[in-house]
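seq:
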Amino acid sequence: MNGVWPICWTGIIKARRLSFIITFTFVQNLIIRLTLMILVTLSSLLLHMNVQPYKDQMANRVYTLSLLVTIGIGLINLVKAGFVEFLWDLEQGVETLGTLN
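struct:
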């Protein structure tokens, strides 16, 4: 499989980046955006681990590590975005209660 895949793999990398750009452009909700980006990266990681597209095993390991770090950063930001969204909803609720009195 290694003979053909490095040529096609650049298209897969570009498609992942294009999906990031499209998601960032058209999805306004931060939690949904981060979730979609994590899912795209996770699917890219699973495909990469299944195919192992590069002849050099070190390159495969580095790319796998890069995808894992990207997923980790996305998960950390997803948790942070959840807290920010919760606190924003909480502040809106407190302002609403203040106007009811």
